[in-house]
Structures are given as C-alpha cells and as structure tokens.
Write a structure and sequence with these properties.
The protein contains seven helices and no strands. With 183 residues, the chain is mainly alpha-helical. Helix 1 packs across helix 5 and helix 5 crosses helix 7.
C-alpha cells in the first residue's frame, strides 16, 4: 500500500491533480526531449515539466473526478480513524469533501522532488511513461468509485484493494532510479 501511495504521489504531488481538471485526454506529457536526464534539469526545465505534467493530467482527469477521489480518500481516512462511523456518516464526510474540493480553486502549485539524486540514466522519457501509465491507472480507479451516496462500509470492504493496486512498472522503475522525486 505504501508503494502505491508513493506512486500515486507522482501524479498527485507533481501535477496537483486534486482541484485541477480538464475534459479530453491523450497526447504527450511534456515537450522536453525524452532523452533529457532528470538529474541535470535546469530550473526552467523543472518549471516547464511541472506545467506540462499539470496540463497533461488536467486533460485526462476532470475536476469532478479529482474531487470524487478526494471524497473517497476522506472516507478511507475517516473509516480508518473511526470504525464506528455509519454509512450515513461516511456519505456525509464524502459529500463534504467533494463539495469543498469543488468550491476551492486550484492553486496550480507544482512541487517536483529532488532530481539531483536521480541516476544518470533516469530520463524525461521514464517520467513521461510513469505519468502516462499512472494517470491511466488513476482514471480506471476513479471509474470504479461510486457517487458519495453509494459509499458504504460494505462497498469499502468489498473494494479495499482499490487503492492498493500495484503501481505501474514504469513508476516502480522510475522510483528505483529517482528515489527522491516524490518527496
């Protein structure tokens, strides 16, 4: 689970996915050449990378879907902290989180971890593949999440492994080459 959360961190932290959004998908992640080493990125390239990744994810994950995920994460945390919560409590917590997310404009803030500790063979191409694969995986997870009114203890139990889906191999490989990228 920790590795999955860390892998989701690539998409969530780098792109600021919660609160960002768009409509259509596809395309390249960044215009920086794929062969560019992550450990030698200039400050300008890091800024471009953050902007490009945010734009890519925004094209692929809508505001509503990002907020739907925020609601689910809130419910998972609430249920973990207080197992006595009722289905109505969980649905209310989800609805509050989604409403708050939908009413809070995105800051567009992008945080890229330390690329100086990446191995020399870690490239923009590796990051492109990880972001693309992880965004696709995240979309498939979001598609399985019901509206807040459908979140119940039984649904959580039946779908306990939803966020424990293994990270794409491309992200596992990138994490090995760039252990501080998601920090």
């Amino acid at each position: 689970m920790l590795n999955r959360v860390k892998a989701l961190g690539v998409t969530l932290l780098v792109s600021g996915i919660i609160g960002c959004g768009g409509s259509s998908g596809g395309g390249s992640v960044t215009g920086i050449p794929a062969s560019t080493s992550l450990m030698t990125l200039t400050p300008a390239q890091k800024t471009q990378l953050c902007n490009d990744v945010s734009a890519y994810v925004s094209k692929n994950i809508s505001d509503a879907d990002g907020c739907k995920l925020s609601g689910l994460l809130t419910v998972i945390l609430a249920a973990g902290l207080d197992p006595t919560l009722t289905d109505a409590d969980l649905q209310s917590a989800c609805t509050q989180a989604v409403t708050s997310c939908n009413s809070t404009p995105s800051t567009g803030e992008c945080t890229l971890g330390d690329t100086s500790t990446c191995s020399a063979d870690a490239t923009i191409g590796d990051l492109n593949m990880c972001i693309s694969d992880d965004t696709a995986l995240l979309k498939s997870v979001i598609a399985k999440v019901p509206a807040c009114s459908g979140i119940t203890k039984a649904w959580l139990d039946a779908n306990a492994n939803l966020l424990a889906t293994p990270a794409p191999a491309s992200c596992t490989s990138l994490d090995a080459k760039c252990p501080d990228l998601m920090n």
